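Hello K.,

You asked for the raw outputs rather than the summary table, so here they are, unedited. I folded two proteins back to back in the same session to keep the settings identical. This is the first:
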Amino acid sequence: MSVLEEQQDYRSAARAWLREHAPGPAAKLDADGLLSRARDFQAALYEAGYSGITWPTDAGGRGLGTAEAQIFSDEAAEYELPVGPFVIGMGMCGPTLVDLGTPEQKARYLPKLLSGEEIWCQLFSEPGAGSDVASLQAKAVRDDDGWVLNGQKVWTTNAQWADFGAVLARTDPDRVKHAGMTMFIVDMHAPGVTVRPLRDMSGRAPFNEVYFDDVRMPADAVIGQVNQGWHAAVTMLGHERVSIGASRRPRSNPLEFASLVELARSAGVAGEPKVREVLADLFAHERALELFNVRMRQETAAGNPPGARGSVAKLAGAMLLRRAIETAGEVAGADVVAWDPEDTRGPELALGINSSPASSIAGGTNEIQRGIIGERILGLPKEPQVDRDVPFRELKVGTQRT
């Protein structure tokens, strides 16, 4: 059987499985009901071999190629799959453990992440360390048999559900700010962990602030090496940017090309030249990003990881969403701010428009991505950094300013 025939068989099997197992639109479930639904579906994905498709087998994955991952992603785009609680673990924390975790960490955590038994979050940002992550002040101090963590994190997606988190903490303030950090696995149910929701302008609370008060972590909780947390952070951020840039929203998403075409038709403006122009422009950009992500997956499979090019995908994805919002305005006109109460698409479109601007901030702002692209891909000079060689203890950053 040729490679093409094998891929066609894989596509047919994935399509049939999704047709049978993908749940329909969620009923009016409470938070616990939605979480239970997500866990059940993630377990079904794992049992069928569609969770961790490209992860190595020793990490609990299937060990398949990027072609299979792309095929499943294409087929899954036809559905609204309830995988939200697992996107951080699957796209960021898990891949970092695959790269840097010990054999014991991989065996303990990855299969349960893949199967939906355990949920993960990422704990980087702080009130005084957002875009400049290396200015973080949460600290972990050694004790006789491990570490004690204190500090605050903010904008933590899925912390309200998480069983474990990958937390970045200061472990040596006498080193320069990029050199004295360590990444740890923290038990989100441990004594001293407090999670508080943060509500955004969409009315939802997808983010949280998290407090750590004398939280104990065992010695083997370190991801990578002590005081080499910046390397671990860059590894995770690379996975995050690729994950965000490559994520496929379901075709029913109100800001997807197909949905906006249907909106234009129902509004009676699909034949207007200006509307056709902006829709064609959106389609071209959607397709270009799709093909760019396919290329990155193929190059990764060939042993050439994307590295800084993940920032290209992340930036392009954020810009695409902004373009989609502008297109929605061209298509729907005043209906983007007011609609008939019986029009179920109105609230969905409003929610999409209100929540989409966050894509230009989450995972590193557009400005941060442009800086990375300029320096690491185009070879432009770095921005001046007067604090690069100064011990962190001496810096006036965050709350240390006072």
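The second followed immediately with the same parameters:
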Amino acid sequence: MQRKRVLPLATLLLCAPALAGTVPAAAASQAGPASGPARPLRILLTNDDGYNAPGIRLAFARLTAAGHDVTIVAPLTNQSGAGTKGSNAPAITVRHPEPKVWAVDGSPGDSVAFGLSEVFEGKAPDLVVSGTNYGPNVAALATHSGTVGGAVAGLEAGIPAIALSTGGVAAPDPVTTINAMGPTLDFAVRLIDRLRARAGSGRLLPEGVGLNVNHPVIGADGKGTPAAVATTFQDPQPVLKSDFTDAGDGTWKVGVKVDLRTPARGGDVEAVSAGKIAISPINADWNTGPLDLAVARALLAGLRP
């Protein structure tokens, strides 16, 4: 049985047709209750590819050019696949190589924790943006993604958060994936503008809810425009399959291949495979919703310590 998390209706309304790229600019400007130009946002920008990766540097440039006050607080080294990992070490190395840039020798979660505690001490950011990631974070990839983990760290602290990823469902091609980061960040700017317009002076997103955005690679050069925007859920399939070969010396060689199955209808894999931008609302916890809770209660009824 496919399980879907029950998400706040307000989130679905925010993400639905209003985010489609076909909405005229004039209509977009009138969509929210705020009057006059929306104020710039203070953004904590993180990722899992490292503070100097192409995706986060392009995100910094584009969001700054859009008028936002952006500060990078990201891992010192590549932390892909770190998920929601947090460090329990007694000390952590942090570098400040340039203005508005902090590099934390830890996971995306460590970076966001440091940023909120120290860099943004006394005044929390309006938004945490994580990415844009090199490659997709759909289906089970999102569960283990450091990009999504960075956004979850923001949500846990009560900050609205968006995870951004660029890539199709196959192994990413370096040239086209990096090229597609331009359209990804163009869309991210429009998305944030829409959320600001609808929020007025309130929160950008409902409390505890973030967005996992997956932008496909379109065209031979990767610079094409996606077919549409789809509000999706996380497809339950694993996407990757691991294989282990005994090397005979106590170690095992690890191989990983893409094992794409039939996409779930309405899921993120289906949307990205069709050349659409997939936006999946996410929570900062692993609750499965009231239906699964009721089923679990029935299964466990009468159980005693």
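Residues 166 and 181 are 6 Å apart (CA to CA).

Happy to rerun anything if the numbers look odd on your end.

Regards,
P.
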